[in-house]
Amino acid sequence: MTERAITWTDDAGRDGRGAVRILDQTVLPATTDYLDVDTVDALVEAIVALAVRGAPALGVAGAMGVVVAMDQAEREGWDEARLQSEIDRIRHARPTAVNLAWGVDQVRPLVGDGRAAVLEAARALAADDEAANRELSRLAADWLLARIDRPTLRVLTHCNAGLLATSGWGTALGVVRELHARGRVEFVYADETRPLLQGARLTAWELAADGIPHAVQVDSAASSTIMRGLVDCAIVGADRITANGDVANKVGTLGVALACQAAGVPLLVAAPWSTVDLSMADGSGIEIEERPGAEVTSFGGVQTVPDGSQGFNPAFDVTPARFVAAVATERGVVEPAAGERLDQA
Ligand code: MRU
Predict the structure, then answer these.
(1) Of 53, 102, 192, 202, which is best to mutate to test ligand 1, by the most ligand atoms within 8 angstroms of its C-beta?
(2) Are residues 140 and 106 in the same domain?
(3) What is the pLDDT of residues 253-268, one digit of tens each?
(4) Where a domain ends, among 128, 151, 170?
(5) Residue whose C-alpha is closest to residue 159's, from 140, 169, 172
(6) 3 state SS of 99
(7) What's the confidence (pLDDT) of residue 161?
(8) Which domain holds residue 338?
(9) Looking at the 3D structure of the chain, how many domains does it have?
């Protein structure tokens, strides 16, 4: 696949200054549409609506967002305080994925050096993300194939941790791509990922485009699929990984992890090092984004609950380190369930 979730485009935006080009994931797979974003409001809106989503892609959005804010400051005559508060708005648009704040923080110190320096750093950050994903995919595939004695693997994945969630290649789906390139994928079960269907709409789209055999299942089928012995491993991405190996990821990941533990199937978490937050000792302090209840109480725009019923919509959960067989980053593979720590990697 050649699509990119997020890039900087020079020949777009007002005054031809350039814009962040976002592949609008709210309308995939039915429609392939790009948003050229050149204001902080539009970027925050795109992040909150999940037009751009997935931890590593949010890191790129954060870094490129600083350029957007600088351009808008120039256009509208903002003072330094206003510029910094608008950059903060981008930094805090979603709380759980550490990459968004990390992406902002990587380039923000360069604001004083001028726009070109910030843009160059943001572009480098995006390129580094894809390189990291390719490397961690190789390491993760080696780890899995050394432990699972089958010619081809049956994999379960949850949410979308593919190229759409990154600047390229993908993390969990990057591992699947790497295994597929080695001829070692038998089948992928993709959880549909209620309520916004990142698995059904996005992961299936990527798997279909790459010709990887797969089926989409409802999230509530996952534990049974694992316990029935239909999969050899589960591979997921992450939004934040703490020093001890606790993993925040899309809600439902914890259920997958518990079933893997019960079935003796390894859960492998694939993420670039930018998703590792060593400032947190464990996952107890991770802020879990709560999204509008209306995303749960309707389906396809039609209300599915009685009038008066509320929706409860935590977007992420935290899987304790003891259920995480492996965390693969570009720096290597750590085994939290065996007592290994990220801060000793
Ligand atoms: O709400 P989303 O779609 O941004 O959630 C995304 C996930 O939970 C992904 O698994 C995670 O960000 C890793 S993406 C490589």
Answers:
(1) 53
(2) no
(3) 999 999 999 999 999 9
(4) 128
(5) 172
(6) helix
(7) 98
(8) 135-344
(9) 2
Ligand 1 near 250 CB (within 6 A): yes
Q: Which of 38, 129, 232, 239 is catalytic?
A: 239
Regarding the beta carbon of 168 and ligand 1, being less than 6 Å apart is answered no
Reply yes or no on whether 129 is catalytic.
no
* Contact criterion met (CB below 8 Å) for 206 and 32: no
Both 272 and 323 in one domain: the answer is yes
CA distance 228 to 323: 19
Q: Which residue has the higher pLDDT, 22 or 13?
A: 22
Q: What is the pLDDT of residue 83?
A: 98
> How many residues can be counted in the chain?
345
Range list of β-strands (E), the chain: 6-9, 19-23, 34-37, 153-157, 185-191, 214-217, 233-236, 240-242, 247-250, 267-270, 276-277, 298-299, 302-303, 316-319, 326-329, 332-334
Is 303 in a helix, a strand, or coil? strand
Give the residue with greater pLDDT, 307 vs 15: 307
Q: Is the CB of 166 under 6 A from ligand 1?
A: yes
Ligand 1 within 6 A of CB of 159: yes
pLDDT of residue 12: 86
The predicted pLDDT at position 269 comes to: 99
Residue 104, domain CATH:
1.20.120.420
Best substitution site from 48, 205, 239, 247 to test ligand 1's pocket, by max atoms within 8 Å of Cβ?
239
Distance 136 CA to ligand 1 centre (A): 17
CA distance 215 to 253: 18
Burial class for 249, CB neighbours closer than 10 Å (0-12, 13-18, 19+): buried
Q: Does residue 1 lie within any of the structural domains?
A: no
User: Which atom of ligand 1 sits closest to the CA of residue 316?
Assistant: 8
The predicted structure's pLDDT at residue 1 = 75
Quick: pLDDT tens for 118-134: 999 999 999 999 999 99
pTM, whole model, 2 decimals? 0.98
**Shared domain check, 64 and 27:** yes
pLDDT over threshold 90, residue 107: yes
